[in-house]
Amino acid sequence: MMLNAGLTFAALLAVALAFSIWFDLPRSWGILVALVLTAGFFLEDVTRWRQMRTDMWQVAQGYLIHDSIDGRAQISLSEVADVRLHFGSHVIIKLQSGQRMVMRDLAYPAEAAAQIDAARMPDPH
Q1: Nearest alpha carbon to residue 16 among 3, 1, 2, 29
Q2: In whole angstroms, what is the distance from residue 52 CA to residue 33 CA?
Q3: Which of 4, 9, 15, 92 has its CA 20 to 30 A from that of 82?
Q4: Is 74 in contact with 81 (CB distance < 8 Å)?
């Protein structure tokens, strides 16, 4: 999260300083705008993480089950077309319908993707 905030601040600072130069504004304006926007994005990330930290994903009885504060969703593993690791921390699940779901903030995303992929494949024996 801190790396993301640092990269966001650097990108916003570069844009703000470019605007400062282009419109002949004080450089401190650019730093202040970058800090305020980065703080807003950081607080949004923390809030989203707090809401999603209790989400539970499990593979059981031919279904991928997602329990969250919004309720329970069950997706048949036969509907899963593809499972991919994304940026090393998210798992993207593509369904046969073309819809995509994201599993975020997993402790072991690579293992989760492998487990879902193995469960959706038919047993060769």
Answers
A1: 29
A2: 29
A3: 4
A4: no
